């Protein structure tokens, strides 16, 4: 059976988001890990993508942030707000103006008001999200119309914390999966899949879309 086969309502089954380690994520990430999860070539490729897509001077949300945001050197961003699980890591991130400790898997609601941000990014972390549609709807809520949300990933992960559907699929299927999050969550326009791999070293893939204009339809209840 195709691991991306969905239920009748367009959602994957709950089993798709099971993990080998179902202990609270805050415990797993309690110790700072001041490491980068992609190599220099992939980091540079991600920086180029950010420079092309993210708005200059805009207030940005770094979702599932850590001690580096991989924004290109000299980027003219406004305030960058990090949301992650380890305060020490985010405090060491020189590109963050502020940060919030928040577990998206425990509570997908984002602690921000409507249309606070001009752009958002989530780097090499989407494989750990257990409620992706709720998270994508929340990101849409906090973005202004037309604002981009860039989701990037490679072929690395902490396997015990990655969701089953991620571990059971290929890199190409990961692009399809993340694109389906944008399309199924609603509120996004013109999603794009891109292979930004530099050619040597770690691969880099990205899916991004822009927040649609107008009022969003009510989404699924977040429990």
Task: Outline the structure in words.
With 223 residues, the chain is an alpha/beta fold. It has one domain (14-211): Vaccinia Virus protein VP39 (Rossmann fold, 3-Layer(aba) Sandwich), CATH 3.40.50. Helix content is 24%, strand content 17%. The protein contains six helices and seven strands. It has helices at residues 25-28, 40-53, 87-91, 132-142, 164-167, 171-185; strands spanning 60-63, 80-84, 98-101, 119-123, 148-153, 188-195, 205-211. It has a seven-stranded mixed sheet with strand order 3-2-1-4-5-7-6, with helices on both faces. Strand 2 (80-84), helix 3 (87-91) and strand 3 (98-101) form a beta-alpha-beta unit. The longest helix has 15 residues, at 171-185. The chain is globular and about 40 Å long. Residues 6-10 and 217-223 have low confidence and may be disordered.
Show the helix and strand layout:
Blueprint: H1 25-28, H2 40-53, E1 60-63, E2 80-84, H3 87-91, E3 98-101, E4 119-123, H4 132-142, E5 148-153, H5 164-167, H6 171-185, E6 188-195, E7 205-211
Parallel strand pairs: 1-2, 1-4, 2-3, 4-5
Antiparallel strand pairs: 5-7, 6-7
Q: Main beta sheet: strand number and arrangement?
A: 7 strands, mixed
The helix/strand order is HHEEHEEHEHHEE
Number of strands: 7
Structural class: alpha/beta
Trace the largest sheet across and list its strands: 3-2-1-4-5-7-6
Ends: how far apart?
29 Å
Which consecutive residue ranges, at least 5 long each, have pLDDT under 50? 6-10, 217-223
Helix content: 10-25%
Q: What Rg is obtained from the alpha carbons, in whole angstroms?
A: 16 Å
Quaternary state of the chains: single chain
Number of domains: 1
Q: Report the sheet-strand fraction.
A: 15-25%
CATH superfamily: Vaccinia Virus protein VP39
CATH class equals Alpha Beta
The rough form would be described as globular
Find the CATH topology.
Answer: Rossmann fold
Summed over residues and divided by their number, the pLDDT gives a mean of: 88
H/I helix tally: 6
Architecture per CATH nomenclature, i.e. the level-2 architecture? 3-Layer(aba) Sandwich
